[in-house]
Design a protein that fits this description.
The complex is a heterodimer of chains A (489) and B (114). Chain A is mainly α and 489 residues long. Chain A has 17 helices and no strands. With 114 residues, chain B is α+β, with helices and mostly antiparallel strands. Chain B has one domain: Alpha-Beta Plaits. Chain B has a four-stranded antiparallel β-sheet, covered by helices on one side. The longest helix of chain B has 12 residues. Chain B is elongated. The two termini of chain B are 12 Å apart. The relative contact order of chain B is 0.32. The mean pLDDT of chain B is 94. Classes of the chains: A mainly alpha (489), B alpha+beta (114). At the A-B interface, helix 11 and helix 12 of A face strand 3 and strand 4 of B.
Chain lengths: 489, 114
Protein backbone atom coordinates (compact mmCIF):
# COMPACT_ATOMS: atom_id res chain seq x y z
CA UNK A 1 0.00 0.00 0.00
CA UNK A 2 1.42 3.34 -0.93
CA UNK A 3 1.33 6.36 1.31
CA UNK A 4 -0.96 8.02 -1.16
CA UNK A 5 -3.46 5.16 -1.00
CA UNK A 6 -3.46 5.28 2.77
CA UNK A 7 -4.12 8.96 3.05
CA UNK A 8 -5.83 9.69 -0.23
CA UNK A 9 -5.20 13.13 -1.67
CA UNK A 10 -4.43 14.85 1.59
CA UNK A 11 -0.62 14.70 1.71
CA UNK A 12 -0.40 16.29 -1.71
CA UNK A 13 -2.82 19.04 -0.78
CA UNK A 14 -1.23 19.69 2.59
CA UNK A 15 2.22 19.73 1.05
CA UNK A 16 1.20 22.12 -1.68
CA UNK A 17 -0.61 24.46 0.73
CA UNK A 18 2.40 24.30 3.02
CA UNK A 19 4.74 25.10 0.17
CA UNK A 20 2.54 27.93 -1.03
CA UNK A 21 2.33 29.52 2.37
CA UNK A 22 6.02 29.14 3.14
CA UNK A 23 7.20 30.30 -0.22
CA UNK A 24 4.35 32.75 -0.56
CA UNK A 25 4.35 32.23 -4.30
CA UNK A 26 3.18 29.95 -7.01
CA UNK A 27 5.12 29.72 -10.16
CA UNK A 28 2.70 32.15 -11.81
CA UNK A 29 1.70 34.14 -8.70
CA UNK A 30 2.98 37.55 -7.64
CA UNK A 31 5.46 37.57 -4.74
CA UNK A 32 4.62 39.60 -1.62
CA UNK A 33 6.91 42.47 -0.77
CA UNK A 34 8.87 42.52 2.46
CA UNK A 35 6.48 45.23 3.70
CA UNK A 36 3.50 42.96 3.04
CA UNK A 37 5.14 40.05 4.84
CA UNK A 38 6.02 42.20 7.86
CA UNK A 39 2.49 43.67 7.91
CA UNK A 40 1.12 40.12 8.02
CA UNK A 41 3.23 39.39 11.07
CA UNK A 42 2.33 42.68 12.72
CA UNK A 43 -1.35 41.84 12.26
CA UNK A 44 -0.68 38.91 14.61
CA UNK A 45 0.40 41.29 17.38
CA UNK A 46 -2.80 43.32 17.18
CA UNK A 47 -5.16 40.42 16.39
CA UNK A 48 -5.75 42.00 12.97
CA UNK A 49 -6.35 40.70 9.46
CA UNK A 50 -3.12 39.30 7.95
CA UNK A 51 -4.46 39.82 4.42
CA UNK A 52 -5.11 43.55 4.92
CA UNK A 53 -1.73 44.57 3.46
CA UNK A 54 -2.23 42.34 0.42
CA UNK A 55 -5.39 44.12 -0.71
CA UNK A 56 -5.36 46.68 -3.50
CA UNK A 57 -7.24 49.97 -3.43
CA UNK A 58 -10.51 48.20 -4.22
CA UNK A 59 -10.04 45.70 -1.40
CA UNK A 60 -9.21 42.76 -3.67
CA UNK A 61 -6.23 40.47 -3.24
CA UNK A 62 -4.35 39.85 -6.53
CA UNK A 63 -4.77 36.25 -7.62
CA UNK A 64 -2.29 33.99 -5.87
CA UNK A 65 -0.73 36.69 -3.66
CA UNK A 66 -0.27 35.44 -0.11
CA UNK A 67 2.17 35.33 2.80
CA UNK A 68 3.12 32.80 5.47
CA UNK A 69 0.79 34.58 7.92
CA UNK A 70 -2.36 33.83 5.92
CA UNK A 71 -4.48 30.77 6.66
CA UNK A 72 -2.55 29.67 9.72
CA UNK A 73 -3.25 30.04 13.44
CA UNK A 74 -1.13 32.36 15.56
CA UNK A 75 0.57 30.36 18.30
CA UNK A 76 -0.13 32.77 21.19
CA UNK A 77 -3.79 33.33 20.37
CA UNK A 78 -4.29 29.64 19.66
CA UNK A 79 -2.54 28.65 22.88
CA UNK A 80 -4.74 30.93 24.97
CA UNK A 81 -7.88 29.62 23.30
CA UNK A 82 -6.95 25.97 23.95
CA UNK A 83 -6.31 26.94 27.58
CA UNK A 84 -9.60 28.84 27.70
CA UNK A 85 -11.55 25.92 26.24
CA UNK A 86 -10.13 23.64 28.93
CA UNK A 87 -10.96 26.25 31.59
CA UNK A 88 -14.59 26.49 30.45
CA UNK A 89 -14.93 22.69 30.52
CA UNK A 90 -13.44 22.83 34.02
CA UNK A 91 -16.33 25.12 35.00
CA UNK A 92 -18.76 22.25 34.37
CA UNK A 93 -16.55 19.28 35.21
CA UNK A 94 -16.14 19.47 38.10
CA UNK A 95 -16.79 23.14 39.05
CA UNK A 96 -20.55 23.38 38.57
CA UNK A 97 -21.00 19.69 39.45
CA UNK A 98 -19.43 20.29 42.88
CA UNK A 99 -21.07 23.69 43.42
CA UNK A 100 -24.51 22.18 42.79
CA UNK A 101 -23.60 18.75 44.18
CA UNK A 102 -22.66 20.23 47.55
CA UNK A 103 -25.96 22.12 47.76
CA UNK A 104 -28.26 19.10 47.42
CA UNK A 105 -28.97 16.49 50.07
CA UNK A 106 -26.46 13.64 50.18
CA UNK A 107 -28.95 11.15 48.67
CA UNK A 108 -28.97 13.18 45.42
CA UNK A 109 -25.33 14.22 45.05
CA UNK A 110 -24.57 11.70 42.30
CA UNK A 111 -27.67 12.65 40.33
CA UNK A 112 -26.16 16.13 39.90
CA UNK A 113 -22.79 14.72 38.84
CA UNK A 114 -24.48 12.29 36.43
CA UNK A 115 -26.57 15.08 34.90
CA UNK A 116 -23.43 17.19 34.30
CA UNK A 117 -21.62 14.23 32.74
CA UNK A 118 -24.64 13.17 30.69
CA UNK A 119 -25.13 16.69 29.32
CA UNK A 120 -21.43 16.92 28.42
CA UNK A 121 -21.62 13.74 26.37
CA UNK A 122 -24.94 14.50 24.71
CA UNK A 123 -24.05 18.07 23.76
CA UNK A 124 -20.65 16.99 22.41
CA UNK A 125 -22.39 14.62 20.01
CA UNK A 126 -24.99 17.20 18.94
CA UNK A 127 -22.31 19.88 18.54
CA UNK A 128 -20.22 17.72 16.25
CA UNK A 129 -23.20 16.59 14.18
CA UNK A 130 -24.98 19.89 13.55
CA UNK A 131 -24.77 22.21 16.57
CA UNK A 132 -21.59 24.06 15.65
CA UNK A 133 -22.82 24.46 12.11
CA UNK A 134 -26.27 25.72 13.10
CA UNK A 135 -24.64 28.40 15.25
CA UNK A 136 -21.54 29.50 13.35
CA UNK A 137 -22.15 28.68 9.69
CA UNK A 138 -23.91 31.33 7.60
CA UNK A 139 -25.06 29.30 4.61
CA UNK A 140 -28.77 29.61 5.46
CA UNK A 141 -28.30 33.40 5.09
CA UNK A 142 -30.58 33.62 8.11
CA UNK A 143 -30.23 35.87 11.16
CA UNK A 144 -31.93 33.12 13.22
CA UNK A 145 -30.04 29.93 12.36
CA UNK A 146 -26.60 29.29 10.82
CA UNK A 147 -26.49 26.49 8.29
CA UNK A 148 -25.29 22.96 7.63
CA UNK A 149 -21.97 23.78 5.96
CA UNK A 150 -19.96 22.59 8.95
CA UNK A 151 -22.19 19.59 9.74
CA UNK A 152 -20.15 16.66 11.10
CA UNK A 153 -17.26 19.14 11.36
CA UNK A 154 -16.79 19.17 7.59
CA UNK A 155 -14.02 21.65 6.89
CA UNK A 156 -13.38 22.35 10.56
CA UNK A 157 -9.59 22.20 10.55
CA UNK A 158 -6.62 23.92 12.15
CA UNK A 159 -6.99 26.82 9.71
CA UNK A 160 -8.82 29.83 11.20
CA UNK A 161 -12.43 30.66 10.29
CA UNK A 162 -11.83 34.36 9.68
CA UNK A 163 -15.49 35.19 10.24
CA UNK A 164 -14.69 34.75 13.93
CA UNK A 165 -10.94 34.91 14.46
CA UNK A 166 -7.95 35.66 12.26
CA UNK A 167 -5.50 33.75 14.41
CA UNK A 168 -7.36 30.88 16.08
CA UNK A 169 -7.73 27.45 14.50
CA UNK A 170 -11.34 26.67 13.69
CA UNK A 171 -11.09 23.28 15.43
CA UNK A 172 -9.99 25.10 18.61
CA UNK A 173 -12.73 27.74 18.17
CA UNK A 174 -15.37 25.03 17.74
CA UNK A 175 -14.20 23.22 20.89
CA UNK A 176 -14.13 26.47 22.85
CA UNK A 177 -17.69 27.28 21.81
CA UNK A 178 -18.76 23.71 22.58
CA UNK A 179 -17.84 24.19 26.23
CA UNK A 180 -20.39 27.05 26.38
CA UNK A 181 -23.00 24.80 24.79
CA UNK A 182 -22.27 22.26 27.55
CA UNK A 183 -22.40 24.51 30.59
CA UNK A 184 -25.57 26.35 29.54
CA UNK A 185 -28.01 23.43 29.85
CA UNK A 186 -26.01 22.19 32.87
CA UNK A 187 -26.90 25.42 34.67
CA UNK A 188 -30.60 24.56 34.34
CA UNK A 189 -30.32 21.50 36.57
CA UNK A 190 -29.90 23.71 39.65
CA UNK A 191 -33.55 24.77 39.65
CA UNK A 192 -34.91 21.28 39.09
CA UNK A 193 -32.47 19.39 41.29
CA UNK A 194 -33.52 16.35 43.34
CA UNK A 195 -36.76 15.67 41.44
CA UNK A 196 -36.35 14.96 37.71
CA UNK A 197 -35.87 11.63 35.98
CA UNK A 198 -32.43 11.32 34.38
CA UNK A 199 -33.93 10.12 31.09
CA UNK A 200 -36.44 13.01 31.01
CA UNK A 201 -33.67 15.52 31.67
CA UNK A 202 -31.50 14.27 28.81
CA UNK A 203 -34.45 14.31 26.43
CA UNK A 204 -35.29 17.84 27.56
CA UNK A 205 -31.72 19.05 27.04
CA UNK A 206 -31.51 17.45 23.59
CA UNK A 207 -34.64 19.26 22.44
CA UNK A 208 -33.74 22.49 24.22
CA UNK A 209 -30.42 22.75 22.39
CA UNK A 210 -32.22 22.78 19.03
CA UNK A 211 -35.14 25.00 19.99
CA UNK A 212 -33.46 27.52 22.29
CA UNK A 213 -29.65 27.36 22.38
CA UNK A 214 -28.56 26.92 18.77
CA UNK A 215 -30.85 29.67 17.40
CA UNK A 216 -30.08 32.05 20.27
CA UNK A 217 -26.31 31.54 20.01
CA UNK A 218 -26.48 32.19 16.27
CA UNK A 219 -28.55 35.33 16.79
CA UNK A 220 -26.02 36.73 19.26
CA UNK A 221 -22.67 35.42 18.00
CA UNK A 222 -23.28 34.26 14.42
CA UNK A 223 -21.56 36.48 11.85
CA UNK A 224 -24.95 37.36 10.33
CA UNK A 225 -26.89 37.01 13.60
CA UNK A 226 -30.03 38.98 14.44
CA UNK A 227 -28.59 40.54 17.61
CA UNK A 228 -24.84 40.56 16.80
CA UNK A 229 -24.43 44.33 17.03
CA UNK A 230 -20.65 44.33 17.20
CA UNK A 231 -19.86 42.39 14.01
CA UNK A 232 -23.04 42.32 11.91
CA UNK A 233 -23.62 45.72 10.33
CA UNK A 234 -27.06 44.51 9.25
CA UNK A 235 -28.18 43.28 12.66
CA UNK A 236 -31.85 44.10 13.27
CA UNK A 237 -31.16 44.46 16.98
CA UNK A 238 -27.81 46.16 17.59
CA UNK A 239 -27.18 44.54 20.96
CA UNK A 240 -23.89 43.41 22.49
CA UNK A 241 -23.14 40.37 24.62
CA UNK A 242 -19.46 39.72 25.20
CA UNK A 243 -19.42 36.27 26.80
CA UNK A 244 -23.03 35.12 27.03
CA UNK A 245 -25.26 37.07 29.41
CA UNK A 246 -28.26 36.40 27.18
CA UNK A 247 -27.14 33.22 25.40
CA UNK A 248 -25.90 31.39 28.49
CA UNK A 249 -27.28 32.90 31.69
CA UNK A 250 -30.62 34.38 30.71
CA UNK A 251 -31.56 31.43 28.53
CA UNK A 252 -30.67 28.82 31.16
CA UNK A 253 -32.02 30.84 34.09
CA UNK A 254 -35.44 31.66 32.65
CA UNK A 255 -35.82 28.16 31.22
CA UNK A 256 -34.93 26.81 34.65
CA UNK A 257 -37.71 28.84 36.28
CA UNK A 258 -40.31 27.61 33.81
CA UNK A 259 -39.18 23.99 34.06
CA UNK A 260 -39.12 24.10 37.86
CA UNK A 261 -42.70 25.41 37.92
CA UNK A 262 -43.95 22.78 35.45
CA UNK A 263 -42.11 20.10 37.43
CA UNK A 264 -43.53 21.20 40.79
CA UNK A 265 -41.94 21.38 44.20
CA UNK A 266 -39.78 18.71 45.76
CA UNK A 267 -41.67 16.32 48.04
CA UNK A 268 -41.66 17.81 51.51
CA UNK A 269 -40.60 21.28 50.30
CA UNK A 270 -41.34 23.83 53.01
CA UNK A 271 -42.10 21.08 55.56
CA UNK A 272 -38.82 19.25 56.00
CA UNK A 273 -35.36 20.79 56.11
CA UNK A 274 -33.35 20.59 52.88
CA UNK A 275 -30.00 22.12 53.80
CA UNK A 276 -26.87 21.64 51.66
CA UNK A 277 -25.15 18.36 52.49
CA UNK A 278 -21.65 19.77 51.99
CA UNK A 279 -20.82 23.45 52.00
CA UNK A 280 -17.18 22.36 51.59
CA UNK A 281 -17.84 20.81 48.17
CA UNK A 282 -19.93 23.85 47.28
CA UNK A 283 -17.08 26.22 48.09
CA UNK A 284 -14.55 24.08 46.21
CA UNK A 285 -16.85 24.14 43.19
CA UNK A 286 -17.25 27.91 43.47
CA UNK A 287 -13.49 28.39 43.36
CA UNK A 288 -13.27 26.21 40.25
CA UNK A 289 -16.09 28.18 38.60
CA UNK A 290 -14.30 31.44 39.33
CA UNK A 291 -10.97 30.19 37.94
CA UNK A 292 -12.65 28.58 34.93
CA UNK A 293 -14.59 31.78 34.24
CA UNK A 294 -11.36 33.49 33.11
CA UNK A 295 -11.49 31.18 30.11
CA UNK A 296 -15.17 31.98 29.68
CA UNK A 297 -14.82 35.78 29.86
CA UNK A 298 -11.25 36.67 28.85
CA UNK A 299 -11.35 33.80 26.33
CA UNK A 300 -14.39 35.37 24.66
CA UNK A 301 -12.05 37.87 23.01
CA UNK A 302 -11.07 34.81 20.90
CA UNK A 303 -7.50 36.10 21.11
CA UNK A 304 -4.84 36.82 23.71
CA UNK A 305 -5.15 40.55 23.03
CA UNK A 306 -5.88 43.76 24.89
CA UNK A 307 -9.62 43.12 24.95
CA UNK A 308 -8.97 39.79 26.68
CA UNK A 309 -6.65 41.50 29.15
CA UNK A 310 -9.33 44.05 30.01
CA UNK A 311 -11.92 41.29 30.41
CA UNK A 312 -9.57 39.45 32.78
CA UNK A 313 -9.37 42.52 34.98
CA UNK A 314 -13.08 43.44 34.98
CA UNK A 315 -14.04 39.82 35.70
CA UNK A 316 -11.82 39.78 38.76
CA UNK A 317 -12.91 43.16 40.13
CA UNK A 318 -16.64 42.55 39.67
CA UNK A 319 -16.48 39.07 41.21
CA UNK A 320 -14.42 40.01 44.23
CA UNK A 321 -16.74 42.95 44.98
CA UNK A 322 -19.95 40.94 44.43
CA UNK A 323 -18.84 38.12 46.76
CA UNK A 324 -18.10 40.64 49.47
CA UNK A 325 -21.27 42.71 48.96
CA UNK A 326 -23.57 39.64 49.12
CA UNK A 327 -22.00 38.64 52.45
CA UNK A 328 -22.28 42.19 53.76
CA UNK A 329 -25.96 42.23 52.78
CA UNK A 330 -26.42 39.02 54.76
CA UNK A 331 -24.63 40.52 57.72
CA UNK A 332 -26.89 43.56 57.84
CA UNK A 333 -29.96 41.39 57.21
CA UNK A 334 -29.44 38.52 59.65
CA UNK A 335 -26.29 39.38 61.55
CA UNK A 336 -24.02 36.70 60.03
CA UNK A 337 -21.94 36.46 56.85
CA UNK A 338 -22.09 32.89 55.47
CA UNK A 339 -19.85 30.82 53.22
CA UNK A 340 -22.83 30.19 50.95
CA UNK A 341 -23.30 33.97 50.83
CA UNK A 342 -19.72 34.55 49.68
CA UNK A 343 -20.04 31.72 47.14
CA UNK A 344 -23.39 32.95 45.80
CA UNK A 345 -22.06 36.49 45.52
CA UNK A 346 -19.00 35.33 43.59
CA UNK A 347 -21.12 33.39 41.09
CA UNK A 348 -23.56 36.29 40.79
CA UNK A 349 -20.68 38.68 40.09
CA UNK A 350 -19.33 36.37 37.40
CA UNK A 351 -22.79 36.08 35.83
CA UNK A 352 -23.59 39.80 35.79
CA UNK A 353 -20.18 40.81 34.42
CA UNK A 354 -20.29 38.15 31.67
CA UNK A 355 -22.05 40.19 28.94
CA UNK A 356 -20.11 43.34 29.89
CA UNK A 357 -16.64 42.07 30.64
CA UNK A 358 -14.92 42.99 27.37
CA UNK A 359 -16.76 46.31 26.99
CA UNK A 360 -16.41 48.04 30.38
CA UNK A 361 -13.59 49.67 32.33
CA UNK A 362 -12.53 49.16 35.94
CA UNK A 363 -15.09 51.60 37.36
CA UNK A 364 -17.85 49.91 35.40
CA UNK A 365 -16.87 46.54 36.83
CA UNK A 366 -17.11 47.86 40.40
CA UNK A 367 -20.65 49.14 39.72
CA UNK A 368 -21.50 45.71 38.32
CA UNK A 369 -20.00 44.01 41.37
CA UNK A 370 -22.14 46.01 43.79
CA UNK A 371 -25.32 45.45 41.75
CA UNK A 372 -24.52 41.72 41.45
CA UNK A 373 -24.12 41.42 45.20
CA UNK A 374 -27.46 43.07 45.97
CA UNK A 375 -30.05 42.29 43.26
CA UNK A 376 -29.66 38.48 43.00
CA UNK A 377 -29.34 38.35 46.79
CA UNK A 378 -32.71 40.07 47.07
CA UNK A 379 -34.30 37.62 44.62
CA UNK A 380 -32.84 34.51 46.29
CA UNK A 381 -33.70 35.50 49.84
CA UNK A 382 -36.95 37.50 49.40
CA UNK A 383 -38.69 37.15 46.05
CA UNK A 384 -38.39 33.35 46.06
CA UNK A 385 -40.22 33.20 49.39
CA UNK A 386 -42.96 35.61 48.27
CA UNK A 387 -43.81 33.53 45.21
CA UNK A 388 -43.04 30.11 46.67
CA UNK A 389 -41.48 28.46 43.58
CA UNK A 390 -38.98 25.71 44.39
CA UNK A 391 -35.86 26.96 42.54
CA UNK A 392 -33.83 24.40 44.48
CA UNK A 393 -30.32 25.80 43.98
CA UNK A 394 -31.26 29.32 42.82
CA UNK A 395 -30.54 29.03 39.11
CA UNK A 396 -33.26 31.62 38.49
CA UNK A 397 -32.22 33.97 41.27
CA UNK A 398 -28.57 33.98 40.23
CA UNK A 399 -28.45 33.25 36.48
CA UNK A 400 -31.74 34.61 35.12
CA UNK A 401 -31.80 37.69 37.34
CA UNK A 402 -28.03 38.19 37.06
CA UNK A 403 -27.95 37.61 33.30
CA UNK A 404 -30.81 40.05 32.72
CA UNK A 405 -29.25 42.64 35.01
CA UNK A 406 -25.90 42.22 33.25
CA UNK A 407 -27.38 42.55 29.76
CA UNK A 408 -29.07 45.77 30.85
CA UNK A 409 -26.06 47.28 32.64
CA UNK A 410 -23.82 46.43 29.66
CA UNK A 411 -25.92 48.83 27.61
CA UNK A 412 -25.18 51.62 30.07
CA UNK A 413 -21.55 50.92 30.96
CA UNK A 414 -20.02 49.80 27.62
CA UNK A 415 -17.30 52.11 26.33
CA UNK A 416 -15.25 52.09 23.14
CA UNK A 417 -12.28 53.32 25.21
CA UNK A 418 -11.52 49.72 26.19
CA UNK A 419 -12.79 48.00 23.05
CA UNK A 420 -12.36 49.70 19.69
CA UNK A 421 -14.61 47.09 18.06
CA UNK A 422 -17.53 49.10 19.42
CA UNK A 423 -16.61 51.80 16.90
CA UNK A 424 -17.02 49.50 13.91
CA UNK A 425 -20.81 49.30 13.69
CA UNK A 426 -22.06 50.87 16.91
CA UNK A 427 -20.28 54.21 17.10
CA UNK A 428 -23.56 56.12 16.90
CA UNK A 429 -25.36 54.29 19.69
CA UNK A 430 -22.80 53.34 22.37
CA UNK A 431 -23.42 55.51 25.41
CA UNK A 432 -26.74 56.64 23.90
CA UNK A 433 -29.45 54.26 22.71
CA UNK A 434 -27.50 51.02 23.17
CA UNK A 435 -29.44 50.24 26.32
CA UNK A 436 -32.70 50.21 24.30
CA UNK A 437 -31.15 47.64 21.95
CA UNK A 438 -30.13 45.61 25.00
CA UNK A 439 -33.74 45.64 26.20
CA UNK A 440 -34.87 44.30 22.82
CA UNK A 441 -32.29 41.49 23.07
CA UNK A 442 -33.51 40.74 26.59
CA UNK A 443 -37.10 40.50 25.30
CA UNK A 444 -36.18 38.14 22.44
CA UNK A 445 -34.20 35.91 24.83
CA UNK A 446 -37.04 35.86 27.36
CA UNK A 447 -39.69 34.92 24.83
CA UNK A 448 -37.60 32.23 23.15
CA UNK A 449 -36.55 30.67 26.48
CA UNK A 450 -39.98 30.73 28.08
CA UNK A 451 -41.99 29.56 25.06
CA UNK A 452 -39.40 26.97 24.01
CA UNK A 453 -39.10 25.48 27.49
CA UNK A 454 -42.87 25.41 28.05
CA UNK A 455 -43.50 23.51 24.82
CA UNK A 456 -40.67 21.00 25.32
CA UNK A 457 -41.52 20.36 28.96
CA UNK A 458 -45.21 19.65 28.30
CA UNK A 459 -44.40 17.37 25.36
CA UNK A 460 -41.96 15.32 27.44
CA UNK A 461 -44.39 15.28 30.37
CA UNK A 462 -47.04 13.80 28.07
CA UNK A 463 -44.63 11.33 26.44
CA UNK A 464 -42.80 9.86 29.41
CA UNK A 465 -43.38 11.98 32.52
CA UNK A 466 -40.81 14.24 34.12
CA UNK A 467 -40.71 13.13 37.72
CA UNK A 468 -39.54 9.92 39.34
CA UNK A 469 -42.00 7.90 41.43
CA UNK A 470 -42.61 9.44 44.85
CA UNK A 471 -40.88 6.50 46.49
CA UNK A 472 -37.79 6.93 44.31
CA UNK A 473 -37.66 10.63 45.04
CA UNK A 474 -37.83 9.97 48.80
CA UNK A 475 -35.14 7.32 48.59
CA UNK A 476 -32.94 9.65 46.54
CA UNK A 477 -32.12 9.76 42.84
CA UNK A 478 -28.63 8.32 43.34
CA UNK A 479 -29.99 4.88 44.08
CA UNK A 480 -33.21 5.05 42.03
CA UNK A 481 -31.69 6.46 38.82
CA UNK A 482 -28.05 5.38 39.01
CA UNK A 483 -27.92 2.47 41.45
CA UNK A 484 -24.97 3.86 43.38
CA UNK A 485 -24.34 6.01 46.41
CA UNK A 486 -22.16 9.07 46.83
CA UNK A 487 -20.89 8.16 50.27
CA UNK A 488 -20.35 4.73 51.74
CA UNK A 489 -19.51 4.87 55.42
CA UNK B 1 -23.86 -8.58 94.03
CA UNK B 2 -26.28 -6.92 91.65
CA UNK B 3 -25.06 -5.37 88.40
CA UNK B 4 -26.03 -1.96 87.15
CA UNK B 5 -25.75 -0.13 83.87
CA UNK B 6 -25.07 3.58 83.72
CA UNK B 7 -26.07 5.51 80.60
CA UNK B 8 -24.73 9.04 80.59
CA UNK B 9 -25.60 11.61 77.94
CA UNK B 10 -22.87 14.25 77.91
CA UNK B 11 -21.54 17.08 75.80
CA UNK B 12 -19.20 15.72 73.13
CA UNK B 13 -16.26 17.90 74.11
CA UNK B 14 -16.43 16.52 77.67
CA UNK B 15 -15.83 12.92 76.58
CA UNK B 16 -12.07 12.89 77.27
CA UNK B 17 -12.43 14.45 80.73
CA UNK B 18 -15.21 12.07 81.71
CA UNK B 19 -13.24 9.05 80.50
CA UNK B 20 -10.21 10.13 82.54
CA UNK B 21 -12.29 10.76 85.66
CA UNK B 22 -13.94 7.33 85.34
CA UNK B 23 -10.60 5.62 84.82
CA UNK B 24 -9.21 7.34 87.92
CA UNK B 25 -12.26 6.09 89.83
CA UNK B 26 -11.32 2.54 88.85
CA UNK B 27 -13.87 1.96 86.09
CA UNK B 28 -12.17 -0.18 83.48
CA UNK B 29 -14.40 -0.18 80.44
CA UNK B 30 -17.05 1.84 78.71
CA UNK B 31 -18.76 2.30 75.35
CA UNK B 32 -19.23 5.71 73.73
CA UNK B 33 -21.68 6.48 70.92
CA UNK B 34 -22.30 9.69 69.01
CA UNK B 35 -25.99 10.46 69.34
CA UNK B 36 -28.39 13.31 68.68
CA UNK B 37 -31.07 14.55 71.02
CA UNK B 38 -32.59 17.41 72.89
CA UNK B 39 -34.04 18.20 76.27
CA UNK B 40 -34.50 21.67 77.65
CA UNK B 41 -31.58 23.05 75.65
CA UNK B 42 -32.79 24.79 72.52
CA UNK B 43 -31.27 23.90 69.14
CA UNK B 44 -29.81 26.44 66.78
CA UNK B 45 -30.81 28.07 63.50
CA UNK B 46 -29.11 27.52 60.14
CA UNK B 47 -29.74 29.87 57.21
CA UNK B 48 -28.95 28.95 53.59
CA UNK B 49 -29.70 31.81 51.16
CA UNK B 50 -32.59 32.98 53.30
CA UNK B 51 -34.06 29.53 54.03
CA UNK B 52 -34.03 29.13 57.79
CA UNK B 53 -33.87 25.74 59.45
CA UNK B 54 -34.18 25.14 63.19
CA UNK B 55 -31.92 22.31 64.20
CA UNK B 56 -33.49 20.72 67.33
CA UNK B 57 -31.37 17.61 67.56
CA UNK B 58 -27.99 18.47 68.99
CA UNK B 59 -24.94 16.24 68.90
CA UNK B 60 -24.26 14.47 72.20
CA UNK B 61 -22.21 11.49 73.34
CA UNK B 62 -23.83 8.55 75.10
CA UNK B 63 -21.58 6.62 77.47
CA UNK B 64 -22.57 3.13 78.58
CA UNK B 65 -20.88 1.58 81.59
CA UNK B 66 -21.65 -1.72 83.26
CA UNK B 67 -20.48 -2.13 86.86
CA UNK B 68 -21.22 -3.71 90.27
CA UNK B 69 -23.71 -1.84 92.40
CA UNK B 70 -20.96 -0.89 94.87
CA UNK B 71 -19.12 1.15 92.22
CA UNK B 72 -22.15 3.10 90.98
CA UNK B 73 -21.82 6.03 93.36
CA UNK B 74 -18.17 6.74 92.63
CA UNK B 75 -18.81 6.51 88.90
CA UNK B 76 -21.67 9.00 89.18
CA UNK B 77 -19.48 11.32 91.22
CA UNK B 78 -16.73 11.11 88.61
CA UNK B 79 -19.13 11.86 85.73
CA UNK B 80 -20.75 14.76 87.57
CA UNK B 81 -17.40 16.28 88.39
CA UNK B 82 -16.04 15.98 84.85
CA UNK B 83 -19.12 16.67 82.72
CA UNK B 84 -20.65 19.60 84.57
CA UNK B 85 -20.34 23.07 83.04
CA UNK B 86 -23.31 24.47 84.94
CA UNK B 87 -25.02 25.48 81.70
CA UNK B 88 -28.16 24.03 80.23
CA UNK B 89 -27.41 21.03 78.00
CA UNK B 90 -24.89 19.24 80.25
CA UNK B 91 -26.85 16.02 79.86
CA UNK B 92 -28.25 13.28 82.10
CA UNK B 93 -27.21 10.13 83.90
CA UNK B 94 -29.49 7.09 83.92
CA UNK B 95 -28.91 4.11 86.20
CA UNK B 96 -30.57 0.85 85.14
CA UNK B 97 -30.72 -2.63 86.64
CA UNK B 98 -29.03 -5.35 84.57
CA UNK B 99 -29.99 -9.02 84.37
CA UNK B 100 -26.80 -10.61 83.14
CA UNK B 101 -23.34 -9.99 81.65
CA UNK B 102 -21.43 -12.58 79.64
CA UNK B 103 -17.86 -12.22 78.36
CA UNK B 104 -17.85 -13.78 74.92
CA UNK B 105 -14.22 -14.98 74.97
CA UNK B 106 -14.34 -16.93 78.24
CA UNK B 107 -18.07 -17.28 78.70
CA UNK B 108 -17.61 -15.85 82.23
CA UNK B 109 -20.83 -14.58 83.74
CA UNK B 110 -21.88 -11.93 86.24
CA UNK B 111 -19.40 -9.75 88.10
CA UNK B 112 -16.43 -11.75 86.76
CA UNK B 113 -17.37 -10.71 83.26
CA UNK B 114 -17.54 -6.97 83.94
Amino acid sequence: MTIQNMFGWRPLLVLSVFWMSIAGVRADAPAPTLEQRVAGLEAYLGNGDPTAALKDAKGNIPDGLTTASVGVAGPGHNGWMMTSAALVLFMTLPGLALFYGGLVRSKNVLSILAQCLGITGLVTLLWWAVGYSLVFDDSFKSPILGGLGFAFFKGVTSAPNTNYAYWVSQNVFSMYQMMFAIITPALIIGAIAERIKFSALLLFVGAWMFIVYFPLAHMVWGVNGLMNGVWNAGAAIKAIDFAGGTVVHMSSGWSALILCMILGKRLGFGKEPMPPHSMVLCMVGTGMLWVGWYGFNAGSAVAADGVAANAFMTTTLATGVAAFVWAVAEYFDKGKASVLGFCSGAVAGLVVVTPATGFIDASGSIIIGVAAGLVPWFFCTRVKRWFGYDDALDTFGVHAVGGTLGAFLTGILATADVNANLNTNLKEIVGKTLVAEQCKAIAVTLVLSIVGTTVIAFVIKALMGLRPAAEAEREGLDVSDHEEKGYIY
Amino acid sequence: MALKKIEAIIKPFKLEEVKEALTEAGIEGMTATEVKGFGRQKGHTEIYRGSEYTVDFLPKVKLEIVLPEASVQKAITAILKAAKTGKIGDGKIFVLPLDEVIRIRTEDKGEKAV
